[in-house]
Specification:
Largest sheet of chain A: none
Distance between the termini of chain B: 53 Å
Number of strands of chain A: 0
Largest sheet of chain B: 2 strands, antiparallel
CATH superfamily of the largest domain in chain A: MetI-like
CATH topology of chain B: MetI-like fold
CATH architecture of chain B: Orthogonal Bundle
CATH superfamily of chain B: MetI-like
Helix content of chain B: over 70%
CATH architecture of the largest domain in chain A: Orthogonal Bundle
Oligomer: heterodimer
Strand content of chain B: under 5%
Order of helices and strands of chain A: HHHHHHHHHHHHH
CATH topology of the largest domain in chain A: MetI-like fold
Number of helices of chain B: 14
Helix content of chain A: over 70%
């Protein structure tokens, strides 16, 4: 009997050891998988940055040969510089409009809808649930019989795709503001408009600003709206790149894209500082 | 107790408060989203005309062509197959990343989170271009393959289905991570702990508690990734060339090259139908108890 229980005990210990080994092996496999996933996520972006400093057409070169040749070519190319400027302007306009509408909508949804709030929030996400090609094509169809300028359709399309981001981002920051503060303002005689403008807006300012930046980034990176709605004098940067890359590939694209990546990373870090990216994206 | 009666004008302003806040977005969505999309989808039921875009006679001809013409059927089948493969691969990778970020409690978490969000913010074109550079005949992957001696010459990787799938998984991964991460964060942490105290190992408590509870995030992420993939144009046309046919580039070609609006609209309608089915599936899956 005694020897049996000792054998059983030894067996149990070995079992525990084996299980611990298996668990640590699993942890290792998991960690390696995660590292590989991060490499996978970041490699295409890093490779673009590296190849933008290439001395020639290839994207593997010795570090001492790095050059700014493709950046000079970018600055010298009217097509790309104009497209870059146009994209900046379009994104600025779309971001301002989407943030203004986004703020009033977010305020209305979070403060005035009562039991309908969830529904309102879901409905405000509508442009995100529809494939962007569909928004773009139906606006193009609208242009064939409505006398609105093409540029207006492009701006409207961009405002539409930015709105879900501004509404949800601003709504998230409004939820962090105590509604009692406004009630206090009302009892002291402020109108609802006044309370919204004087109390809530300043408190929500970081959230509003980060929503505006987010909208700017969304508009700047868009291809599908601009693909069908941009005309000869109003080509956005992604469309210019797209039509160029269809026929040829040159590191000048890498240089342009690197400028864009740096800009977006800076914006991202700024949002992270303001309200945190997670809050801005409502994750 | 009010000191003075508010004026008529200010009373009207107060009454109009909520409508004035929600009016702009309602008008914008109705006039430039719902109405045009409805009209566009309705065009799919009209007859094609080379001279007048479409004729005002209702027909199911466009749908018949899509479903019974071998050429179009092949493209639709191909798109659904690719979208399914991309969705499954993103689900596996996305779950691992989301779970990793969820378990991570140090201050590195926000940095690692940022590294998942940053590629998303750069836009589709930047990431697709990155893959063109990586997979090209003088790109990094071919250079590495030749360096370690796996191949003697460059391997053709651009203009293949594999390239499109890899790049689409890369583009879609963040869309999968966020809903899953949200569903992990919103779980009651005591449930997994309880499974532990009741004797379940970490693996068992993961598969029997954590994973089933994050199903809503998985279904939502999958629905999003599936539709985004099925509707993509840029990545298949730049990385797949003529060898990969998907409905995104087909819509582009039908509308901008052949001006066949009715048929293009019918293809888009199929895309919407697909998405509606997925959303329906999502609500059924999330409403049912566990």
């Amino acid at each position: 009997m005694a020897t049996d229980s000792i054998a059983l005990g030894a067996l149990a210990t070995r079992n525990v050891e084996l299980r611990q080994k298996a668990a640590s092996a699993r942890r290792w496999v998991f960690s390696i998988g995660i590292v590989l996933l991060y490499v996978f996520l970041l490699l295409p972006i890093l490779v673009v940055v590296v190849s933008s400093f290439s001395p020639d057409q290839s994207n593997t070169y010795a570090l001492s040969q790095a050059s700014l040749r493709w950046y000079r070519e970018f600055v010298a190319s009217d097509d790309f510089v104009n497209a870059f400027k146009f994209s900046l302007e379009l994104a600025a306009v779309a971001a301002v409009v989407a943030t203004a509408i986004g703020f009033v909508t977010a305020y209305g949804v979070t403060r005035c809808l009562g039991a309908w709030r969830e529904t309102g929030q879901a409905l405000s996400m509508l442009p995100m649930m529809v494939p962007h090609i569909l928004i773009s094509l139906s606006l193009l169809l609208l242009l064939t019989f409505l006398p609105i300028p093409e540029l207006a359709a492009l701006v409207i399309g961009h405002v539409l795709i930015c709105l879900p981001f501004t509404i949800s981002g601003i709504a998230a920051s409004l939820e962090g503001i105590e509604p009692d503060l406004e009630r206090a303002a009302w009892t002291m005689g402020a109108s609802r408009w006044c309370a919204m403008r004087e109390i809530v807006l300043p408190m929500a300012a970081p959230g509003v600003l980060s929503a505006a930046i987010f909208a700017f980034v969304v508009s700047f990176g868009d291809v599908y709206i601009a693909m069908f709605l941009s005309g000869p004098d109003m080509t956005t940067l992604p469309i210019q790149i797209y039509s160029y890359v269809q026929w040829q590939s040159s590191p000048v694209i890498a240089a342009i894209t690197t400028v864009q990546i740096v800009m977006i990373v800076l914006f991202g870090l700024f949002i992270e500082r303001l309200v945190g990216l997670r809050a801005a994206m409502r994750i | 107790m009010r000191a003075a009666q508010p004026s008529v004008a200010s009373r009207i302003a107060e009454r109009a408060f909520a409508p004035a806040l929600l009016g702009p977005v309602t008008l914008l969505y109705l006039a430039f989203l719902i109405a045009p999309i409805g009209y566009f989808l309705a065009v799919s039921l009209l007859k094609y005309s080379a001279s007048a875009m479409y004729l005002p006679s209702v027909t199911l001809e466009n749908y018949r062509r899509l479903l019974f013409d071998g050429y179009y059927r092949q493209i639709i089948y191909n798109t659904l197959r690719m979208a399914a493969v991309v969705t499954v691969l993103s689900l596996v990778g996305g779950y691992a990343l989301a779970y990793f970020l969820f378990r991570m409690k140090s201050r590195w978490r926000s940095i690692l989170m940022f590294l998942v969000i940053a590629p998303l913010m750069t836009g589709v074109i930047v990431r697709t271009y990155g893959w063109i550079v990586l997979l090209g005949s003088d790109g990094l992957i071919n250079w590495l393959l030749q360096l370690i001696g796996l191949t003697s010459g460059p391997v053709q990787m651009l203009d293949t289905e594999g390239a499109v799938i890899v790049a689409l998984v890369h583009i879609m991964l963040p869309y999968m991570v966020f809903p899953i991460f949200s569903s992990l964060v919103s779980q009651d942490p005591h449930l997994a702990q309880a499974a532990g105290t009741l004797g379940a190992g970490s693996t068992r408590s993961f598969f029997e508690v954590t994973l089933p509870l994050s199903r809503s995030g998985m279904v939502m992420g999958s629905a999003l990734v599936f539709t985004l993939t099925a509707g993509s144009i840029v990545t298949p046309s730049l990385l797949g060339g003529k060898n990969v046919t998907m409905i995104g580039p087909l819509i582009y070609q039908l509308i901008l090259s052949t001006f066949n609006w009715p048929l293009g609209a019918a293809v888009a309608a199929l895309l919407v139908l697909c998405q509606l089915l997925l959303i329906l599936f999502y609500f059924r899956k999330t409403r049912r108890g566990y």
